[in-house]
């Protein structure tokens, strides 16, 4: 819908009305076409202002329409008609002007933005490109380098930066529509040819071929197989090398290759999955719409190691007051310095003032007396955490939420150590905590829905993709990861190399394969977990028993490599070798290859040729299978929860949609058949046995992923 009114007697005012973001649905597009016609034929009207209802200009094309047949007037001619208008068309931009919304504004002759407005062409994040003239008009307006940056990254800019770039003509602190109407009156009757961006020559940067080759090299390097960033470079290149009409044809061609691609569907699934996880629920039935969060005005962080420092920064950047507590003087001073420089760097990037004054530091745990929520981030040791929770329960005011950043310990056991277990939840951040977008909010058996609601709301405030999950060993992310790593170890036993396994996973789209990632995070981290679980046993046992734990196959390869002091980048040796400790460039290590041959010989294992397909199937299907078990156990409410966790916390390529979405694109019957095949080949690996829920979904005709929640709900209601 779009409403037409007159403002100040001579200005036609077109207001987009499609809450919550005024997306350009078919109905809205038709209404724009109609109201623009009315305004241009209204003799009283000298100029026209286009704005959005509810302080939001326009969130772009209606993504919900992409899955179906496109109806209604197309965007491109609609915007052309606005640009060709014989009366000044002024866009009054409040809130968001994104994608087709910014393209609509670029079709106008002038753009007035509120200082809090956000502008951008994020289509690439949806597996698309700006296909309503954005890839042709933006380079003509702001130049190729800045347009390339915005279009290939999908970066959203503030009004201040948009003014500096030349995207908008004016920024106002006051009512934007009033300012736009006043401006529209001031330009009434002025010539417009010089304001029609599509007629602008596109400034050709010196040596533009080199610039585009460099841009292409860069996006291919970071895209990890994603098609859209590459198409975005090609579209902007068309703007720099072709006349506008031919550039628009090229834009259309490129968009056609993307629009129906699996990658675009996967990224749009991730977009809606991110919104779906915000509508969280617990097995009790309580959820986002029935649980009111408690207000959090002041928070505390206990333990200022790497995680504690990142969490302190993430909290302070929300505008909250934070008490940062570390009992050791030296660590406290070091942490203060680290937090200060992280805040200053972040503020510089955002062009804002660092929130240094929001943080107070203390060595005394009693400083938590007036906070609303505490996040504990001390060393991963149950006895230590229980002691901290005991003290917190003594010093915190009634009702203070006690959150733990543990990544592996039992949240219920921690809660049992306090007088109010209903106030205890896990807030599992990912390193670096002020950068990584994922937050697992872990509810225990006694956690109150209000505690979960509060943690989820705080997560959203920190800009996190927050996912509510049940308490179990490894929660969701790490629980699935164990199966993925285990298969990688087994593949080494059977003849693969770290290079082969990592090559297959990186070709799939992961930023790093399992062994390069292990070298980065430190092999000793996993070793400590395996030792704590009683799996890793010292020394080199030989024979079958060395490779069996609790009746199942176990690979001691990782333990044996650690016993050599090879912990990865930090020791300069791990699965790969590095020039020196701390360096990041991995090189194949002949020592590791001969170690693998000797290991196989000692255990009577014969290496066989393994291809990339088998690597993918074993590592990814084992992880997916555990995902189905997690859904079966009710630890995660739906596939979207698992997929958001893996895309925003474990480097799963967004253009593959996440593990559960990926399984649905491969086809559940295929995943089931392959798991049965590998379980038959490896009967000593019970985790390869297909999960009952997977069998059930296949038996019920493999419904599309967005319908799995129903099947799961029915399954749980029958239990
Ligand atoms: C031709 C052209 O070149 C191409 C092809 C395009 O234009 S492609 C499209 C390009 N546009 C985008 O990429 C912008 C996408 N949107 C956002 O980034 C954010 O939404 C937001 C604008 C910054 C607001 O954030 P928010 O945190 O305030 O609210 P929300 O929870 O996110 O959103 C509130 C509700 O609105 C829904 N929604 C948001 N944007 C939408 C859109 N463009 N289409 C359809 N629904 C949308 C969203 O699913 C949610 O629904 P529900 O969950 O309540 O049912």
TrEMBL record:
One of its GO terms (cellular component) is peroxisome. Keywords: Fatty acid metabolism, Isomerase, Lipid metabolism, Lyase, Multifunctional enzyme, NAD, Oxidoreductase, Peroxisome. Residues 298-471 form the 3-hydroxyacyl-CoA dehydrogenase NAD binding domain. It holds the Pfam family 3HCDH. Its EC number is 1.1.1.35, 4.2.1.17, 5.3.3.8. InterPro entries: 3-OHacyl-CoA_DH_NAD-bd (IPR006176), 3HC_DH_C (IPR006108), 6-PGluconate_DH-like_C_sf (IPR008927), ClpP/crotonase-like_dom_sf (IPR029045), Enoyl-CoA_hyd/isom_CS (IPR018376), Enoyl-CoA_hydra/iso (IPR001753), NAD(P)-bd_dom_sf (IPR036291). The keyword Cell cycle does not apply. GO terms for molecular function: (3S)-3-hydroxyacyl-CoA dehydrogenase (NAD+) activity; delta(3)-delta(2)-enoyl-CoA isomerase activity; enoyl-CoA hydratase activity; NAD+ binding. Pathway: Lipid metabolism; fatty acid beta-oxidation. Its main location: other. One of its GO terms (biological process) is fatty acid beta-oxidation. It catalyses: (3S)-hydroxyhexadecanedioyl-CoA + NAD(+) = 3-oxohexadecanedioyl-CoA + NADH + H(+); (3S)-hydroxydecanoyl-CoA = (2E)-decenoyl-CoA + H2O; (2E)-hexadecenedioyl-CoA + H2O = (3S)-hydroxyhexadecanedioyl-CoA; a (3Z)-enoyl-CoA = a 4-saturated (2E)-enoyl-CoA. It is found in: Peroxisome. In the C-terminal section; belongs to the 3-hydroxyacyl-CoA dehydrogenase family. Monomer. This is Peroxisomal bifunctional enzyme.
